[in-house]
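Revision sheet: C-alpha cells.
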Amino acid sequence: MGDTVKSEGVKKKSFFKGLKSEFKKVVWPDKTTVKKQTIAVVSSAIALGLIITILDMIIKFGLSFIL
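Predicted:
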C-alpha cells in the first residue's frame, strides 16, 4: 500500500546483519557522561518529589483549615 518503488530486483539484507551495521553507527557515551547524567536525573527526581510532597502538605493543611 505504501510502496511506491518497485523492490523486485532489490536483494534484502538479513535482519541481524542490518542490526549489526546500525549498532556500529551508534556513538556510545563515555563513563563520565553517563555518571553526570545519572546524577542529574536522580537529583531532579528527588527535587521534584520534595516539591510535590511540600505542595501536598500545604494543600492538605489548607483544606483541613477550611473544612
